[in-house]
Amino acid sequence: MSLFTRYKGYTPLWPNVSTFRQTNRQLIFLVLGHVVVLAISVAYNAYMIKRLEHWWPTTPLDNYQHLNTQPLVDEGFFNALAKPSSEENAVVTCMYTDSYATAIANLGHSLNRVNSTAKRLLFYLPENISPDALCVASATGFIPHPVTRIPPPHNGKGTHERLMDAYSKLNLWTLSESGIKAVVHLDADTLVMRNFDELFSLPYNFGAAPDVYVGLHGFAVEFNTGVIFARPSMDVFNDMINKMQTATYDAIQADQAFLNQYYAADAVRLPYAYNANLAIKKRKPEMWQDLKGRARIVHYTLVKPFLAEADNTGKTIVTIDGLEDNVKSRMGEFDGVFDEELQEWLDIWKETYQLYGKKLNQCMRAGTPS
């Protein structure tokens, strides 16, 4: 059988080339049509998002204007109040990792500068903190106060990796057992600029300043727990421990999310002067300009001068000797918006080292915090 007769019954897939070309053309038009529809959809969504930014309800803070010139505190009224015993008031900060030792030392000196009358307690987890780091952190006045770790509910599911120990802050409410009637908690990344003793006279059980974000969320209804006022109570503490297992909230923010849920309708809104979050300066510079002149406490949220990493993880320990260079290396972040505040932190650190250098060096001789 010849080659030609062998394939005599063969039928090609496309009986004629014109049919193939027509099918191919239809396929191309179909693909192009989908691409055009997709492009239109993307453009429309981008347009709507842009419009949404303009439609999104603005707050008086987004439209901030320099109007109010009244002092934050009525000094005459405050001075007429009976002053509680300093032993009944406490300023508390928490230490979960060695990388915050120098920050707490600086915070302690900033409290000395404003003549804070309350006793100072440093909550720390003995299993996490080295003796050398504890020595540095307590060199300027904080009294070490070991606490038991409070684990996150549901074995930490949904909680941010850096906040696995943060629920230990709830130990604040156990201080009623030590005779403490009022407490102001300051995160270790804060710095005190002016006296805030008036907070201890508040008749309420809980207060905090609203949170601030640089993105669309902006000036939030939720409060930030970097600075809180609370009246300790063992009954409240036990109630919290029980309810944190069943309450529903976004676990990623750990204790902050829980406390927002627990005190949802009962938290007293503190003025931003008590928690001058750096995000305010990025979000609304005009507001920061007015706020800075009366801020009691500055909160270094977006850039932490004592940490090495841009994401503020704190995995690298910045030594005392390297702290100044570290602060300078972090200047320029966020287009240099916070350079002035970073320099202020550094200036106070230089004071801290000048006054407490002997103690700090003794800690160093015992071994660099690690």
TrEMBL record:
List the keywords (alphabetical). Membrane, Transferase, Transmembrane, Transmembrane helix
- Descriptive protein name: Glycosyltransferase family 8 protein
InterPro entries according to UniProt = Glyco_trans_8 (IPR002495), GNT1/Glycosyltrans_8 (IPR050587), Nucleotide-diphossugar_trans (IPR029044)
As given in the record, the signal peptide range reads none
Per the UniProt record, the source organism is: Laetiporus sulphureus 93-53
Q: Which residues cross the membrane?
A: 27-47
In alphabetical order, the GO MF annotations are: glycosyltransferase activity
> Which Pfam families did the record assign?
Glyco_transf_8
